[in-house]
Structures are given as structure tokens and as C-alpha cells.
Amino acid sequence: MSLIVPPTGFCPNLFTLRMQVAQRVFSSPDSGSEQVIDRLNDRWLLSLTLPNRLHADAAVIEAFIASLRGMTNTVALYHYVRRVPRGSMRGAPTAQAAAAGAQALVLNTTAGATLKAGDMIGVAGLLLMVATDATANGAGVMLVQIVNCLRVAVGGGSPVTWDKPTAPFRLVSPSAIQYIPGHSPEASFDFVEAVG
């Protein structure tokens, strides 16, 4: 299994990122009440569409698709609209230790740094979305609520990626390049975050 690098010019004109939550729901046949169990194994589903291309440019995308070898290899992808936080956090932030299953992180950054709801960060190989606005205190400590559950424990001092944080994804759609006279039309891809 290899990590494949997207080709130059891999820039979607349509992009969707959504979370798939692993959960089980049990309903009472008598009262109709429900119980939901969260399996704490969230993963991202990502869909994107690449724009029309000339045949020569489409050949590069065709080679990229083939190099993924179905679901065998992975590609590091990020949120193509929010490549950096809307908040002000920059520099070299680190995370304090957090247990697997946690839905909050404590970050060490600069005093007054902010993250906004929807900002993406990366830590311990995970792509995480900020749930609510957060501001670092005067000592640079920031409590960040996240929408994901941490799948793995985060070690103290782990670096936090804010510039194009990525996660490995597997191709799950039968994507292909079509050729028509003069150009190749849009190509659509569906990916699922690779776990484990």
C-alpha cells in the first residue's frame, strides 16, 4: 500500500466533505423509544469533481486514477475550500495529551489565537473539524471542541497542522476519464478516509 501524490493541477470545481458516524440504533417494539450507541469510529467521506480538461492534461488524471489501484493505495486529501483556518491560529501549535474517544483537545499556541467553527486541523494523523469558536487564553492555552471523536490517543506535544491538514483517503468510486473530441469532460471521485 502506497501514498499517491495528487498530480499538479488537481483542483476540484465541486467539493463535498461529510462525516460518517459509526453508530447503532435500537428501537423498542413496544414504546418506540430509541437507544443510540456511538461506536467512536468517525470517518470522513469526500466527493470532488475535476473540471473539463484537454486530452493531454486528462492523461495525467487518468494515470493518477490507475495508480490508486482501486482501494489499494491512498491519497492525502484536505478540505479544498478551507485550506487554512478562518481563525487566526498560525505558527507551530502543539496538542496536550488526549485519550482516544475524546471530543476536545487542549492546544498550546499563541495568546489570543483563535479557531472558528468549521476550521480544519490535523493532529496524530487525524483530520479534525472544530465544533465551536475557540480563543487561546493569555498563556496561549486553547480548549478546542471537535466534531470528531479521536480514534487514537494524542500524545502531549504532538504537532498540530493548520495549513492544508490532510488524512489518507481511498478511492471508492469507479472513476474514469472520458474522451470526446477536443477535451475530456468533468471527472468525479468519491473517497473514504482510510482508517487503521
UniProtKB/TrEMBL annotation:
<protein>
    <submittedName>
        <fullName>Uncharacterized protein</fullName>
    </submittedName>
</protein>
